[in-house]
Amino acid sequence: SDASPGENWWALPLSSKMPYGIEQTKVEQFVPRRSRPSSGAEFVSSRHFPDVNQGDFMACNTIGFLGISFGSKRDDGAGFVGKANGDLLSSSDGNFRPVDLEFAPDGSLYFVDWHNPLIGHMQHNARDPNRDHEHGRIYRVTYPSRPLVKPAKVDGATVAELLENLKEPEYRTRYRTRRELRSHAPAEVLPAIKAWVAKLDPKEAAYEHHLCEALWATWAQNQPDAELLQRLLRAQRFEARAAAVDVLRHSYRQIPNHVALLQEAVRDEHPRVRLTAIVAATWLDNAEGAKIALEAFRKPVDRWVGPVLHYALSYTLKDDVAALKASGQLDLADNPTAVEYLAGKSKIGQPLADTAPKPTRKLTAAEDKVFQQGREIYFRDGHCATCHQADGKGLANIYPPLAKSNWLEDDERLIKIILKGLWGPITVNGQAFDPSKGVPPMPGFGGMLNDAETAAVLNFTRLSFGNNGKLITPAQVAKVRAATQERTNFYMTEEILKEHPLKATPAKK
Prior knowledge:
Mean pLDDT: 92
Structural class: alpha+beta
Low-confidence stretches: none
Helix content: 25-40%
Number of helices: 18
Strand order of the largest sheet: 1-2-3-4
Strand content: 5-15%
């Protein structure tokens, strides 16, 4: 759960090994955000909670919507998609800050209300006296019409008892059990796991899940059971096969025949298994990894597999593919789709279309260079897109839009705001944004960007999102920076508008 924007992403497609500075294309949030930011998440895994919410993803939000929401999820080819499934609770207290969800051993849900008026670390000093160090609550949520779960014994349990706990339906029970098992010596745990697996009933519905738990328990001892891993790679359930490939990805150095196993997994009938194998291949980061990735073209490439495969071959494994071709070791005679892709004749595997803004008018070569620099700055972590969003439309009731905004018209006003920041009630495109309702201030970037960078990102916004303004020069930025160098705090909205009033908007005919 990406805390700042409150977006929720399935991690596997974003986990390929990428060179520093290259970010894997995101496909789709697996559960839509309710609001932002988020702090603390949990999947519903408790027999004490209603059946309709089992497996739902819960996220806490602390601006705009102050509460905890449910999101259901379902399989979508290699990935997952989901939808909102209602809210667990919300509060009208403006300082309500739910964080840190976790199910207790009895199946009830605990969460913390941080209860703080200030939550930003960019906008407010860490020692701001308005930060509340005294208030806060811990809540326990129960569902009265359903019985609580009988807590499993974890602390003080024998290894045999702990292994039986791994059959429990509640994820948190298994999670705490795994942690306890890791505290026992391998010489005690590993033989017990083999004996436990031998006694499992193959006819039980959760049999292959129990085998996964056994594999994870050996992996936790840093001695993954190779025989059990290979057994799970041929499991009936694709989830179990994908889980085994994931263990292989992280511990391939301990599995002598890992290349052959990944070659087999990348040809699996289910796309999630294949995707897991491609991600694992990027971490091999060698010629064998390149061969494994290219094998994926023998099967259908869905919207989740495509971007991962394309990025792997375009960045991480690019040199390995070139070396294989140069040495004549790349035999793709019976893999025509891979041949077409490498020749640039196939769109298969291409990532989603680049949705980053394009300039609203034709630019000269020099202007385009500035535009591209500004675009890179705009999308830096913790910079403009974090709040104003990739489309420049901001977030309703939280962050003002930049799209077609008359706040971008005055050069000096715009430079002052980006250098020093802005705080106070503001109306943009007819929509009001009020700090008393949770709208945070805009931080100043004067200490983070030099004059050329500041001009570039301002020019990017003036030439994107339907805007078509004139370019600001680094010299203009330098002049305003010098004139405001003694200022150490935000511009208040009323103050900046007194110095640089907005132009009147022409009446609509």
